Amino acid sequence: MARYTGPSCKLCRREGAKLFLKGERCYTDKCGIERRGYPPGMHGQRPNRRKPSEYALQLREKQKAKRQYGVLENQFRTYYRKAARGRGVTGDILLQALERRLDNIVYRLGFAPSRKSARQLVRHRHVSVNNRTVDIPSFQMSAGDTIQIREKSRQLPLVHDALKRMGEGRQVPWLTLDKVNLSGQFLEAPKRDDIPTAVEEQLIVELYSK
Predict the structure, then answer these.
(1) Is 126 contained in some domain?
(2) What mean pLDDT comes out for the span 33-47?
(3) The CATH number of the domain where 184 resides is what?
(4) pLDDT reported for residue 102
(5) Nearest to 68 by CA among 109, 116, 138, 123
(6) Burial letters for 95-126: b for 16+ Cβ neighbours within 10 Å, e otherwise?
(7) Domain span holding position 105
(8) More confident residue, 76 or 10
(9) What's the domain count of the chain?
(10) Cα angle at 85 between 79 and 88, to 5 degrees?
(11) What mean pLDDT is predicted for residues 78-103?
């Protein structure tokens, strides 16, 4: 399975925004954006006097969303196509699908410090949904589903450390958390106002609509 293996901080610097790809490090002064707040590469520190084109703005929003959720191009395009066929606002449906991913839910509940770590937890079969082990990070959660750290995995230091250091902004009204039993419930598909993601999804829709 294809995946990005390069430096995570370089992605944040390229987008000019914190994507919270490295967990706790992103909340400290060691964050790449804090240390080098300019794009990567040999020309990164040169002032850009050009006004970005409409296409450039749309592309940057798409790249930002892809990198934030850890999704590659083909899979992201598939999410968009399904959203475009759905009933409702395409951009909202797209973000809902990304938020309903199992790895994202694990991250939102605070069981992992980043979505990358959450994917690893899922892949290594540490997570169950409705008492059944699920090892597919892209698994789509449905309203009423219960997610839990499996019994044999409840002593993992990563999970307990992540819960202790859970950053602000990750607690959302469409999830409930039981820290004692290391479980949570997906209540309903989130509304756009309840998704704490700094992405202008309309620009993404405009890009793919061309």
Answers:
(1) yes
(2) 58
(3) 3.10.290.10
(4) 97
(5) 116
(6) bbbbbbbbbbbbbbbbbbbbbbbbbbbbeeeb
(7) 101-188
(8) 76
(9) 1
(10) 95
(11) 95
Q: What pLDDT score was predicted for residue 127?
A: 97
pLDDT at 150 over 90: yes
- What is the residue type of 48? N
Q: What is the pLDDT of residue 80?
A: 96
Q: Are 23 and 113 in contact (CB under 8 A)?
A: yes
Under a CB-based contact definition with an 8 Å cutoff, are residues 195 and 53 in contact?
Answer: no
State the Rg of the chain over Cα.
18
**Alpha helices per DSSP H over the chain:** 8-15, 32-35, 54-69, 73-85, 90-99, 102-109, 115-123, 157-164, 201-208
For residue 109, what pLDDT is reported? 93
Tokens of 171: 């607690």
Half-sphere exposure of 56 (CA within 13 A, CB side): 6
Highest mean pLDDT among 66-75, 122-131, 169-178: 122-131
DSSP-assigned states of every residue in 122-169: HHTT-EEETTEE---TTPBP-TT-EEEE-GGGTT-HHHHHHHHTPPTT
Helix-helix angle 157-164:115-123, to 10 degrees: 150
Of 3, 4, 21, the C-alpha closest to 12 is 21
Structure tokens at 130: 């409705």
Q: Is 120 a member of any domain?
A: yes
Closest-CA residue to 32 (of 53, 10, 6, 52): 10
- Within a domain: 122: yes
Does residue 49 lie within any of the structural domains? Answer: no
138's enclosing H/E stretch is none
